[in-house]
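User: I'm putting together a teaching handout on how sequence relates to shape, and I'd like one worked example. Could you take 37S ribosomal protein S35, mitochondrial from Pichia angusta, show the sequence you're using, and then write out its predicted structure as tokens right after it?

Assistant: Happy to. First the sequence, then the structure tokens directly below it.
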Amino acid sequence: MLALRAHPPQAQVVRVSQVRYNRVLAYPSYTTKGYIPPSRGGRKQTVFKKLMDEFLGDKNYKGQYYDNRFAFLNQNHSTNYIDARFGENKNKLFAEESEEDEAYEERPPPGPKDQLRPFSLNRFTVTNTMVSEDMKKQLVSEVLDEGKALLEVAVKYKMKIQRIEALVKLHEIEKQYQEEGKITPTMEKFADVMYKAFPLFDPEVHGENLTEIPIPSETLHSRFVTIAESEPFGPVDAAKEFGLEPAAETLRKITEEGEHALSKTNNAKVHKSFVAPMHEGDRVAYKFTDVKVGEIGYRYGKPYRDNRKDRKYAFDNAGKMYPVLE
């Protein structure tokens, strides 16, 4: 007897290993799919290996990538390093669109933050700005020489009071170092390189929010309070539960007195000592005071090394060996 097997019409073979988890190789948008670069020195060359070689550049006899164009900081007040469309000249984030640039045709116009991105495709990395030397001199002159209020200067330059206080303090430290001769040529060269590497602050573009209030550390932890459904509960009540002053009072201190007003209040709370309540049967009362570890840790000294395997030994005049106390 001859047995016939029925074959399903148009059978389709599916390779499960290729469609599992729906994974696709993350080819960059500026590469051609299916392109296999030629072999390099007998080694297998892939698209990703080719891109890595282009990024690192050639090696020298020590194995160092001396030709890596991204190994040095820009000196044109720009942090835009990588854009795949420009080949060797990859220090611009946006340029005039060409007919061949199909991947970037629908890109929206660049915003203020886009100019501060070192890597154009990473929107989470944003570079900070640096105050120019001319603006710094003018700002310090208005605060120290003319005696203007910090709030007035902050509104004029659209800069937070904390940053203005820091600039004034750093100016005083720099002046003190110059008088004492502590500024070396290496420090000047380093400062010049870092100054040219960062974008400059523009009040019209990079203006800061002057009404921002720093988050108190007490509010970082949850606190549950049982209240009636009809009982009103607002921000002022929440501040009382956390032991904080209202936000309006905090904002007033920041705008009128600066950041040091908050630090004085915090220091008064930190250095305050208190005696723990005594219960029935207690013989002693415990007093708690906030101190720094460096102020009390010196009395413990250094540990003995008698029980260490790597302890050191010395010999006296009689030739007797004894352990050395460090």
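A couple of points you could highlight for students: The radius of gyration is 33 Å. The mean pLDDT is 74.
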